[in-house]
């Protein structure tokens, strides 16, 4: 069991650039599922509200179940749902990933919801976060803008064009690249191809821009091998397949092993 | 997508002895989780209410989500909770696994709750089951005792001693051996060792007694390889690890692959 | 909106024999559904936990939603689940219907769970019931055995044989006849026929025995017409079809009307 | 039980104009309720999140329970909640109805969220939809813009004025007229009168504009008879009363029948 | 038990200015919790969706549980989530508190969602509200703009500057001052200090402006004493600490009393 | 934040007799409520399933939310629901309180469900408990009978008579006295009077018998002062009022303070 200190040092770890972090990615809205997956050697957990089925009620307890296993829990919000970003931070999320941040104004709206003044306009009310961190209200106010992360997704042509300006928006801590949507965008809807050389070129460009801006870079990898490649490209935080991918590959392996032994 | 016919032919498949079936085993009480896991090549799904966290409300929709993927869904009830056995059949379960059936009277109470007269005293009210099977009320009444399964767990010394009599109880369709509890029982609480030669001896004895009684035999295997061995022993229906085992092994593989590629 | 007084006078109304009551019967475990159905001219609402999907959490709020509409809410428990009987009364249920009360000992166990000493051994803790009735703790203790009802289902051959003795058990306030199960029992599983002359004969016999014992009689009718006949037989409390029957007949009528007008 | 093919042919059926479809309309957020209502002869099911109580978690399983009964399930989103539109499609919805589409920019925002590039900017992640349709990821991407429907509600004066332009927005597949809000708007809040000649005039105008634009037209009818009239006006998809209307009319009929027989 | 009349007279009470009202404030999303707290001498209940964990499903039943205890229930929505404002009114909320209303356009969007034409554009569908109030549809339409409240939060520098104009927006019934956010804003994020003389000055100014505009004024007080001071300042509706504050202070008192007696 | 070690040392603390422990007592089935209350200086948390509204699903996450705050969480089961006792231990409960243990056979059934062989027949499957404690399966099996507590409630005349024999049953770790039910039982239902001299006499007798048997004694106190008295009598573990008592007294104090200041 890892203590609160480890969890709450997460922001420093991801910013330090000292080694790639691997996170779980969970769309199934079950708090116990989070606790089980958090037993494995993940550095963090992401609850996906955009393509997954979490809502604020399940996420608030899911965040707790991940922290109980010693892991920081982030959440990806639905497109443009910045009100939920604030609510998830109140519930103890260590960071928010916002999809489809395609412009400076998107980024500003995101930072406004996730950072207290003077950076943004996040509203006060972090009752659960204070429970979980053990900080006083004053300590929480003084440190939250630093300790909780606002991570902007870059996954469209418009976002690529605006990437430098987005990274310059005060309050944006890092970026998260979505290769699937990027590949659909780059092909004008013709294909889903997140692992091509074309996409890799974009990824390398973006991680270089992160370095230039002193921001960290995150990315979705569709499985373990791809995650390893993305770490080699230089990403600070990678996904090694979503929950359903890991669940189903584990099940498929078990079935295959059973049939192989049966046939032996 | 498999149709209702396949699902509702499950009882005939397991009774036919024509080849071992492999089932998923789910303790995490999330209906969508069921749907995802049911996409893999499982012959059935078991929702575990004894050591898992399902209740009647989540199970009723979980059964539907498994059937939606074309798979029959069974449920294991908590110890002695025969009232739930009836409720789960009403909700469309294809069979009930009852833990700790240690005596003829346990088996009779189980059959009483799961079989309509004259075999038992199951009470009428299968509204969801009728929705799901497309049968008329009269057809359902005429076929349910045959089409839905009552499966008695053998997992204590007392149950081993009474196994022949339990299999003779009218309405008991098959047995399910629990090697973990059996190993704890056989060692008087000293060890959890479900995969020893001693346990294998018991398993072989029990599957032979199944054959003698014309009943089918099911068993829990803690992973794919073990499931394969259990199929070779002759079991008709095996588990290849629980949901958390498959989920976590899939995740562990992904993390290991990522770290391996990263280090390459 | 009917006030608490009306709700809490329910026990007196059903005991008075002054006119047949009609109750809704709900298996779908949704509190808002209760509130909608309770707007119609029902005298009471029954939440069915035996063949329906209610659990204690949904039922506790469902009871409130029915009371909010001015209606007393009863609950049918799963077979033998007398622990839930107490919990439902704590949550404000106006009565409990227990299925498959086949013997004096079944009836005694039921009364033990639902009546405070000296009649039974119901345990103290009616926090929500006290909220809802506005009684003090002392008032609640003094009146609960009278104001909340224990209703035993008679629906097997054994129960028919024991009906007189069951009605004599202290704490049993009335009976509820289940014609579906009764018809299955009387035919040894051959048919579901709740509306035959044979069943009617049994119903008339039972309502006569109720009169003899000074108990009230309840019965399930599968639709409105049948409910009317059962009222004429003399039952004090009847069901006019379950929720799904009423929902689906309302929907079927609407579809039929639409197609008729469309074709006109 | 209808197979997946029928469900997924829904878009072609509604576009074909070959006969009016009748859909259920459900605001009560219970997945089992969906399954029960879907047994009746509806061509589709709509889950109402605007005036009903569905959220993403209940809707995701509700969609499954409708599909399990062989019916396509659509959802109406809250006003302007286009992020939920994408999430519902990911969960397997066959179409989205968006209320209060009053301008071209409203329509464009709606299409952006529900159609993949190059039409819109729907983000990739249809895990459940892929489970339910049995399509590969590539097949889903290639067909989703055609097979899932974006339906714009016309229910204000502004929307009436902009109706032609709204129908011209790429990605808008059809319209859905809301006569209740329309009548309130046309009377400046003075009355709720969805079934007047004035409203009928608007409806006829709108269905004519649909024909001109090659779009389909949907409309809410408050009961079966009204639905039939709306079909005669030429609508392709009509509602024959909401869930509560059908439920309560079914219950009222049963009570009335019971009292009539009782008094006979 | 207070009847529906009292609940539905709430708008007149708060507008009358005849005496300060004290409301509960609940972030824990449990309907039964609402019922328990509503037993105390509160004039109203607020469910907090901005910093609390309510969603529409829990709030719809929570509103019912508060009304069941005879209390009007209001809700605070997440920032900018005006679609939920309409849904909560449909579910029977007596008013909506919208956070971060910083401009006339914010206020107009809020009024548009909560008031029927001609004031706003609230969409028709108050099924539960009609159940709870016992009004006919026509009566509800005629009275809802008056009987349900739109309350704008003033809690930033921008909002202070625009306060007069915000109060002039048609449909805005009153304001609610958030001293915590206000203190953070006024200190540019340096401190959380809701109870200072500087804040009190602002509060007095705002309540004077309320009087000038004929609007009522509400405010959050972090405990009972502070609530009393705020009533003396002239607020019409005050909070005397959130649910967790009251819960924890009650628990802390009990522990302290136990330890004191133990040590005596 | 207290670590896992403290939580899992709870059994040793309560057995040591070195000072009275005070526990929270929660009937409201909300996991976040647990987390908030666990912030106060309680030594443990009890989730009440007998008179409270917890079920296995909410309790499994509630246990986690209490542990997240560094507190051991116990659960009281419904009367006779020993199957749930096992499930709650699997979910990480530190102990089970069983109501109405009136005889040696009740106590034996309770111990059978909560202790592994050779003491009892608890079935293997503590997946969440292993997550939470960080023990290996072998370690958990070796220590669980010692580290998790089976606590028998003594609250009827029969239980008083059998108290010595109940305490001698192997596997029963301690007793929990229920003064409310005891007072009802002793008065044959005439009064609820948990704090009388007569009850105190019984409590002193029982704590003396605990000492004689080397068992620990627990008791329910209806508020803080009473809890202090019970600690002085010598109880090892006391309740200082239920959740609703603490919540409502905290709220009542706040309202009173507000009205006092307002009137000053
Ligand atoms: Mg994306
Ligand atoms: Mg076992
Ligand atoms: Mg029956
Ligand atoms: Mg409308
Ligand atoms: Mg604020
Ligand atoms: Mg007790």
UniProtKB/TrEMBL annotation, chains A, B, C, D, E, F:
It comes from Rhizobium altiplani. The keyword Lyase applies. Belongs to the HpcH/HpaI aldolase family. One of its GO terms (molecular function) is aldehyde-lyase activity. InterPro entries: Aldolase/citrate-lyase_domain, HpcH-HpaI_aldolase, Pyrv/PenolPyrv_kinase-like_dom, Pyrv_kinase-like_dom_sf. It comes from the Bacteria. Keywords: Lyase, Metal-binding. Pfam families: HpcH_HpaI. The keyword Transcription does not apply. This is Hydroxyacid aldolase. One of its GO terms (cellular component) is cytoplasm. Residues 25-248 form the HpcH/HpaI aldolase/citrate lyase domain.
């Amino acid at each position: 069991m890892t203590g609160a200190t480890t969890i709450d040092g997460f922001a420093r770890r991801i910013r330090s650039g000292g080694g790639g972090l691997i996170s779980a990615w969970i769309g199934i809205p079950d708090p116990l599922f989070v606790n089980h997956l958090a037993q494995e050697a993940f550095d963090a957990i992401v609850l996906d509200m955009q393509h997954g089925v979490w809502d604020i009620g399940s996420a608030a307890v899911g965040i707790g179940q991940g922290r109980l296993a010693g892991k920081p829990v982030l959440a990806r919000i639905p497109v443009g749902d910045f009100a939920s970003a604030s609510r998830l931070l109140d519930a103890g999320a260590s960071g928010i990933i916002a999809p489809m941040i395609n412009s400076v104004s998107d980024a500003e709206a995101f930072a406004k919801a996730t950072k207290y003044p003077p950076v943004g306009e996040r509203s006060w009310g972090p009752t659960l976060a204070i429970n979980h961190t053990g900080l006083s209200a004053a300590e929480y106010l003084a440190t939250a803008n630093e300790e909780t992360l606002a991570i902007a997704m870059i996954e469209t042509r418009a976002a690529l064009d605006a990437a430098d300006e987005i990274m310059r928006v005060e309050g944006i801590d890092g970026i998260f690249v979505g290769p699937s949507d990027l590949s659909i965008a780059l092909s004008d809807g013709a294909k889903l191809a997140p692992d091509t050389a074309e996409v890799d070129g974009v990824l390398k460009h973006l991680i270089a821009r992160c370095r230039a801006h002193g921001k960290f870079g995150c990315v979705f990898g569709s499985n373990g091998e791809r995650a390893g490649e993305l770490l080699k490209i230089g990403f600070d935080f990678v996904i090694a397949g979503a929950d359903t991918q890991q669940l189903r590959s584990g099940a498929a392996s078990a079935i295959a092993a059973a049939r192989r032994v049966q046939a032996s």
